[in-house]
Amino acid sequence: MDEADVSPSSDRRARKKQMQRAEILRAAIALLRKESFEQTRMEDIAERADVSLKTVYNYFPTKNSVLLAILANDRKRLSQAYEAVADNPPDDLAEALAQLMYADIGDVTTPQEKSLWRDMLAAEFRANSEASEEIDQNREVFKTFTRRILRHFRTRNSLGENVDEGVAADIVYALLMYDFREYCARSNMTPDDFLQLARQRTRLLVAGWGT
Predict the structure, then answer these.
(1) SS3 of 35, please?
(2) Among 9, 117, 191, 195, which is least packed, fewest CB within 10 Å?
(3) Domain segments of the chain: what residues?
(4) CATH of domain 1-61
């Protein structure tokens, strides 16, 4: 389509739709912080966003699609945090992986955020194929940055030739999810506690990965 074919009015409508969708999603997240995923109704989201139920369904056909949107937003946000670690990793491989895992916490620092993510993780187990694809994309983003860090240390001759980067990235992701679930389940566990735990585990993990 030629740029001349896009009228100012259609551009305004597109921006208005983006803003309305974002507002509905913010309302949904605010509710999910207070109530469980199962308890939150689409009607509640509409009321919170001050729009009609039909409007909510126009943007999010199912409650599960709200979950997908939250996951997609989370992936975009965390990619920047991962990038910061991968662009300038610490000199120690275990510390670099621990910092990457720590970056995954993002803004999950309050009991409300932990509660939201407990519901998100539970929803992952109940997810249909569409949600599974979204979760797989989140997983692949983390693993992509893990492989970048592993390649960085390989170029410095600090990673053994027998270490398969793909398999190693799978293991690091599995470790991340185990620790993240524990972090969300323990209300008194702080981000610093998570980082210390990640450091302990990654040191043990990479002990035999050297050249």
Answers:
(1) coil
(2) 9
(3) 1-61, 71-208
(4) 1.10.10.60
Per-residue model confidence as pLDDT tens digits over 58-105: 999 988 888 878 877 877 788 899 999 999 999 999 999 999 999 999
pLDDT at res. 137:
77
- 121: Cβ contacts below 8 Å, ≥ 6 apart: 181, 184
What does the pLDDT look like over 183-200, one tens digit per residue? 999 989 999 999 999 999
* 7-13-15-17 Cα dihedral, nearest 10 degrees: -150
Say how many C-beta atoms besides its own lie within 10 A of residue 25's C-beta: 19
**CATH code, residues 71-208:** 1.10.357.10
Both tokens of 20, joined, read 């309305």
Cα 34 to chain centroid, rounded: 20
pTM for this predicted structure: 0.80
* 106 contacts 79 by C-beta, under 8 angstroms: no
Measure the CA–CA gap between 138 and 145, rounded to whole angstroms: 11
CA–CA dist 189, 105 (Å, integer): 12
